[in-house]
């Protein structure tokens, strides 16, 4: 018996308990902890059973433990009962036991009574029962066995194995309970007993606090409502669930820090001075924006500094601002009774972007110091207030009247400082006004062919009426053809009218200030025929009319043949009494040729023959769009009488010009005026009788083609590009048909309108080239745009339509390369030399083979071998009709942007003419061969035999059989291509 260690010396615990007896989870609330008490006072029965002994834990803190080891005796029934344990609010109670247990097999000489388990019991009681102890009243919770038992050897090795077992007690209903441990013959030491329940501990989530919460005994979660932390408020009611394991689950809803408070950790703290927070939320406080401040903590906004303001719409984050300073540099341009006011932006916008302008109009009576607000129908265009631009037009002012205009700059905070008006003023005197419209027209007499009318002078003539313009036309012709008469007085007789026909008529008065507004349309009818023409007589009349027409036509043809084309003949002189306008010119095909204005002795005669003189008052200039040799190029509007307003480009001749410059300047109009084609820039007219001298042409919104392409690099479809090229070719065909040689065809001299229509421009004589920055002086004198010009034109000034075709080839290259500079940065001398030696520009990136072929054709050395513009147009038409033909891409050298590569393999020197090589290859049905060859710039069949096998290989002709056969003769090539299984 003595050899059995009756007592498990607690010194061992310092070994085994390390790390095991330490704390428990924070969500566990102890009802009993044996380690915490030095006087447990538990009842042991019988008294020689469980024995209470003292020891120390791993921290050398004294603890009380119980042990029993009566394994050598029979019938053991040793009970140990705890004190009464109050349940508090706990519903679910846990018991944690820590114990060591001796392995029975390791105990020598045991008599078979040794056990390796003990039993755990409990008994409920509403109050402490004192020392009374009734075993039979206890309910068994479980038999506790050791996971780990120890042997004598373990003891020798000083290893004790501590077991921890946790069991649930209950369900309990009474206020407290006892636990009891029954030993039936084991060797066991009860190191600690802890009784606890679990709770969800106090916590703060989403700025809401959740109190300690004890879960229910059932499996259900307990829903707990949180309360917002100080200085925050609920955005969504905060809630969480407490699980039976004492864990918080599923946080829902949240609180947000109030305005002026920001989140710091789990609380809301006031913003510091100089900071603010204007909305609830979990953002940080922001620094006060410029020109604002706050001294207090917890501010929801910052106050503006003195003289700074915030409008009701301004967010708190915006800087405080102030009204703008006054507009500057007001200028006025008076046009009769209207005035254009223009000014500069204020120096100080007050820190805002919403500056607008308001115009106050004051009428100042002569002799009176005070001005009064403008009354009546003064019109402000676009409007009087809220102007976003620095200009306004004021119309319908009284003639010969003084006005003062105050232009006030206003922004979003101006209304907060009503006393602060910042304006600039300008005083003007209006000029003469155009007359008001003729309101009343009276029909005095009508007959079959005439009508006599009279009318009243306009209510406000605003000056001396010089004459009246009477415009009339047949109603059914709808103004496509009309007649204009001028009348000195207030009556007119219209003669030569058709019987029984309805006419529409409008009258307007003219003074030195110009035309007044037209009268409303006035409708009248001539009388019906009083006699009818018999069939025969009508035939006679018809024959007579036909003969007369024939005679007139013959005269017209003769006139045109002799007198060349005259677009606005002398009969259209504005001073003439009767003018007739029809749409379309009388043109006979094939006889119109270009007339060199220099052949006129008097150049001003040429200009008036080919260009219409415009009244400067019909032209409004909007802005400068470019610069020409002679002056600025502006965009503007042309409003001719009885025509729709059109956008125009206006070239001006700058002041201080010589007579020769004026002549050169206008020669462009004399040339342009002779052309009438959709792909040639259209001349609207010239202003030569007043200054500045102007040339007015149609307006081309997209400007010159080279810069337009550079701006839209790679953005057009192939069909769009070919469409543009087709337009240029059509314009050039027209010019060459007219016998006009352009000499400076280049993308920079093509203009593009908003519909991508390309039109040829820049006409002139020697001056065009003088004007062109690309033109360089040649050794033979004269300026030539080398890169665009055919060798014979550079060499001996042989400018022809064929040299224009060469230039067209260069334009084709410019278009396909989106405005790349031909021959890049090579010098002019190198370009001349390289071209002369037979080298040609390589195909631009992704250039269809067919277009590159066209380029090479245009660059034939012998100008007779170049295609005519007519052929170019038809080639391009075919390509447009058959877009798949554009899919075959010419081979591009690896890096075309170097002069070295430029010279790689593109030689066509010695290539004799074979313009229809493509056709020939087509005819032999060798499409792949043709495509491949288009890459080397084939032009001549006769060159092929001279081409080395290596050359052919280089361009990838490997599919057509033995290369040497290809190069040996055309006949062989034909045979091979026919026999090879080449897709066609
Ligand atoms: P030019 O003196 O004809 O070379 O014109 C100079 C520049 O003015 C051109 O490069 C264009 O940008 C512009 N320009 C000339 N004519 C027109 C036009 N009809 N429409 C629009 N811009 C034009």
From TrEMBL:
Localization per Swiss-Prot or TrEMBL: Cell membrane
One Pfam family recorded for the sequence: Ephrin_rec_like
Keywords: ATP-binding, Cell membrane, Disulfide bond, Glycoprotein, Kinase, Membrane, Nucleotide-binding, Phosphoprotein, Receptor, Repeat, Signal, Transferase, Transmembrane, Transmembrane helix, Tyrosine-protein kinase
Biological process, per Gene Ontology: axon guidance
Cystine residue pairs: 69-187, 104-114
Gene Ontology molecular functions: ATP binding; transmembrane-ephrin receptor activity
Active site, UniProt feature: 744 (proton acceptor)
Matching SMART domains: EPH_lbd, Ephrin_rec_like, FN3, SAM, TyrKc
GO cellular component: dendrite; plasma membrane
Binding site for ATP: 625-633, 651
Span of the signal peptide: 1-19
Residues annotated as transmembrane: 540-562
Start and end residues of each Fibronectin type-III domain: 323-433, 434-529
EC number in record: 2.7.10.1
Record protein name field: receptor protein-tyrosine kinase
């Amino acid at each position: 018996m003595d050899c059995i260690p009756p007592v498990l010396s607690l010194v061992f615990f310092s070994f085994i308990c390390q790390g095991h007896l330490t704390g428990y989870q924070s969500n566990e609330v102890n009802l009993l902890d044996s380690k915490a008490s030095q006087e447990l006072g538990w009842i042991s029965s019988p008294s020689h059973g469980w024995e209470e002994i003292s020891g120390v834990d791993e921290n050398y803190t004294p603890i009380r433990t119980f042990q029993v080891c009566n394994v050598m005796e029979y019938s053991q029934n040793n009970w140990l009962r705890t004190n009464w344990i109050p349940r508090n609010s706990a519903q679910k109670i846990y018991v944690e036991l820590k114990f060591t247990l001796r392995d029975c097999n390791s105990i020598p000489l045991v008599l078979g009574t040794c056990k390796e388990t003990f039993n755990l019991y409990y008994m409920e009681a509403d109050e402490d029962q004192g020392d009374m102890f009734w075993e039979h009243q206890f309910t068994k919770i479980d038999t506790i066995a050791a996971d780990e038992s120890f042997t004598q050897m373990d003891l020798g090795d000083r290893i004790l194995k501590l077991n921890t077992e946790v069991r649930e007690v209950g369900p309990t209903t009474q206020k407290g309970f006892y636990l009891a441990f029954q030993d039936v013959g084991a060797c066991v030491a009860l190191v600690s007993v802890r009784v606890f329940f679990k709770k969800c501990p106090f916590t703060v989530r989403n700025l809401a606090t959740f109190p300690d919460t004890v879960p229910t005994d059932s499996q259900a979660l307990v829903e707990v409502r949180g309360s917002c932390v100080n200085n925050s408020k609920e955005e969504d009611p905060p809630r969480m669930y407490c699980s039976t394991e004492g864990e918080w689950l599923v946080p829902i809803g949240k609180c947000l820090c109030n305005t002026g408070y920001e989140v710091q950790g789990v609380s809301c703290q006031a913003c510091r001075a100089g900071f603010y927070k204007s909305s609830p939320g979990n953002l940080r406080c922001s620094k006060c924006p410029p020109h604002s401040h706050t001294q207090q903590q917890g501010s929801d906004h910052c106050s503006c500094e003195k003289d700074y303001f915030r409008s009701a719409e301004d967010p708190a984050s915006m800087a405080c601002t102030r009204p703008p300073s006054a507009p500057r540099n007001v200028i006025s341009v008076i046009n009769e009774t209207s005035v254009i006011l223009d000014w500069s932006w204020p120096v100080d916008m007050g820190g805002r972007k919403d500056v607008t302008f308001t115009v106050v109009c004051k009428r100042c009576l002569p002799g009176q110091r005070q001005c009064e607000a403008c009354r009546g129908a003064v019109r402000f265009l676009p409007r009087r207030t809220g102007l976003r631009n620095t200009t306004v037009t004021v119309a319908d002012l009284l003639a010969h009247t003084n006005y003062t205009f105050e232009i006030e700059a206003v922004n979003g905070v101006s209304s907060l400082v009503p006393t602060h008006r910042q304006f600039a003023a300008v005083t003007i005197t209006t000029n003469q006004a155009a007359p008001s419209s003729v309101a009343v027209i009276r029909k005095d007499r009508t007959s079959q062919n005439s009508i006599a009318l009279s009318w009243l002078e306009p209510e406000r003539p605003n000056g001396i009426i010089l004459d009246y313009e009477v415009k009339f036309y047949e109603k059914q012709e709808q103004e496509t053809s009309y007649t204009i008469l001028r009348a000195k007085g207030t009556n007119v007789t219209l003669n030569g009218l058709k019987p029984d026909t309805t006419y529409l008529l409008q009258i307007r008065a003219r003074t030195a200030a110009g035309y007044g507004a037209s009268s409303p349309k006035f409708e009248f009818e001539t009388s019906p025929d009083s006699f009818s023409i018999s069939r025969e007589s009508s035939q006679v009349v018809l024959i007579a009319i036909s003969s007369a027409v024939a005679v007139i036509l013959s005269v017209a043809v003769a006139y045109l043949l002799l007198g060349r084309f005259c677009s606005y003949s002398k009969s259209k002189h504005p001073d003439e009494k009767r003018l007739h306008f029809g749409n379309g010119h009388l043109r006979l095909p094939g006889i119109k040729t270009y007339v060199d204005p220099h052949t006129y002795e008097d150049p001003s005669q040429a200009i008036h023959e080919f260009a219409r003189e415009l009244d400067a008052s019909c032209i409004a200039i909007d802005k400068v769009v470019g610069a020409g040799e002679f002056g600025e190029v502006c965009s503007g509007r042309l409003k001719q009488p009885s025509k729709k307003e059109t956008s125009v480009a206006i070239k001006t001749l700058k002041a201080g010009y010589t007579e020769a410059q004026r002549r050169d300047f206008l020669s462009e109009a004399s040339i342009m005026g002779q052309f009438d084609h959709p792909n040639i820039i259209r001349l609207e007219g010239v202003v030569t009788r007043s200054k500045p001298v102007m040339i007015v042409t149609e307006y081309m919104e997209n400007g010159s083609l080279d810069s337009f392409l550079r701006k839209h690099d790679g953005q057009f479809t192939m069909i769009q590009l070919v469409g543009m090229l087709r337009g240029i070719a059509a314009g050039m065909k027209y010019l060459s048909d007219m016998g006009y040689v352009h000499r400076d065809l280049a993308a920079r001299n093509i203009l593009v309108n908003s519909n991508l229509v390309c039109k040829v421009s820049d006409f002139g004589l020697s001056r065009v080239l003088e004007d062109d920055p690309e033109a360089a002086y040649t050794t033979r004198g004269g300026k030539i745009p080398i890169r665009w010009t055919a060798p014979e034109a550079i060499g001996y000034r042989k400018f022809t339509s064929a040299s224009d075709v060469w230039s067209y080839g260069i334009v084709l290259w410019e278009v396909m390369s989106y405005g790349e500079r031909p021959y890049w940065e090579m010098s002019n001398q190198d370009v001349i030399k390289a071209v002369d030696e037979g080298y040609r520009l390589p195909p631009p990136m992704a250039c269809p083979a067919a277009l590159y072929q066209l380029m090479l054709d245009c660059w034939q050395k012998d100008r007779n071998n170049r295609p005519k513009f007519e052929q170019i147009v038809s080639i391009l038409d075919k390509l447009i009709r058959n877009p798949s033909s554009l899919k075959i891409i010419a081979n591009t050298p690896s890096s075309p942007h170097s002069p070295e590569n430029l010279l790689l393999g593109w030689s066509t020197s010695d290539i004799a003419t074979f313009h229809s090589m493509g056709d020939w290859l087509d005819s032999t049905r060798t499409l792949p061969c043709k495509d491949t060859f288009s890459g080397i710039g084939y032009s001549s069949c006769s060159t092929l035999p001279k081409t080395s096998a290596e050359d052919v290989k280089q361009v990838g002709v490997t599919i057509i059989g033995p290369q040497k056969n290809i190069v040996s003769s055309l006949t062989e090539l034909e045979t091979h291509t026919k026999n090879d299984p080449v897709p066609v």
